[in-house]
C-alpha cells in the first residue's frame, strides 16, 4: 500500500514538473514573440521627456562655479551639454531710460542667482537691420541659462523709438518691462555730458548745454534737442501703453539706486516674482568712486566702468529752473499714470 502511494506521488510530481517546464518554455517563446512584435515607437518614447534635473542654485554657485560662469556669459560647451543649458528670449527687458542707470540696474539684478543678463546692448528692436535678421538671431545673442532662470537685456534706446513697443509686443505680449528714471533735468545734463566727453575724445567742439537746451530765438525750451525730448517720460510711456497694460511696467528710481540700491532691487525682485536673494552683503559703497559696487561672493567683486559717475558741467541756474518748470506738468502726469511719485521739482 505504501509502495503504491509513493508511486502515485512520483507520478503527480512528474506531471506537475512537466507542466512547469512547459509553462516556462511557453513564456520564453511568448516573450521572444512580443519582443519581435513590439511597436517601432514604444510607449516610453511617446511619453513627454523628463525635465532635466534642476541643480540647486546654491550648489551651482558655491560647488561648481557654474553660476559665476553664466553671469559672465562664459559657459563652456561641456557645461552646456552636461547641464542642458539653453539660450532663451528675455522675459524682462530694461527699456530705458538712457542715463537713468540702466547698466547699473542690469548689473545689480545679475546678483540674483535666478537672473542671467545679456552682456551687450543688442539693439534688436530699435535697429531695422538687426530686426530684419529675425527672432532666432536675437535669441542667439542671449547667454546660456537654465530653463528656470530669467534672461534680461537692456537697450535704453527702446524707450524712445517709435517702432519698438509693437515689435516687442509681437515677440511676447506678457513680457515684463523695466524703466529706470532720474530727475529729468539732471538726466538731460548727464546725457549731454556723455556726448560731450565723446566729442572731446575726438578733438571735436560741442555747444554748451544751455545753447542746446534753450532756443536762442524764442528763449523757450528746445524740445527738438534729444536730451530734452528723452526726459519727457510721459510722452514716450503713452506710446508703450497702447500695447501693454501699466501692470507690466515697473518704474525704478534711478536717483535712489545710486544712494540706497537695496530697497529698489527688492521691489524689482517682487515685480519679477523672484525669491528675495539680493542682500546688503552684495552691495558695498566704494568711497573712491562715490557709488556702490557689487559683491557676488567672497572672491568676486565688481565695480562699474570708470565712465560711470562723470562730473557734470556747471549749468546756468536760470536754465535749470526753466527746464524744471517745463518738465513739471509732464512729471505730474507720469506720477498719475505709473502710481509712483518722486520728489522732483
UniProtKB/TrEMBL annotation:
Principal localisation: Golgi
TM regions (residue ranges): 12-29
Q: Which UniProt keywords apply?
A: Disulfide bond, Glycoprotein, Golgi apparatus, Membrane, Signal-anchor, Transferase, Transmembrane, Transmembrane helix
Subcellular location(s) per record: Golgi apparatus membrane
The UniProt entry's GO CC annotations, sorted and at most eight, read:
Golgi membrane
Cystine crosslinks: 293-303
Q: Tell me the domain of life.
A: Eukaryota
State the membrane topology: Single-pass type II membrane protein
Which PANTHER family does the entry mention?
Answer: HEPARAN SULFATE GLUCOSAMINE 3-O-SULFOTRANSFERASE 5, HEPARAN SULFATE SULFOTRANSFERASE
Family per record: Belongs to the sulfotransferase 1 family.
Protein name per Swiss-Prot or TrEMBL: Sulfotransferase
Q: Which organism is it from?
A: Eleginops maclovinus
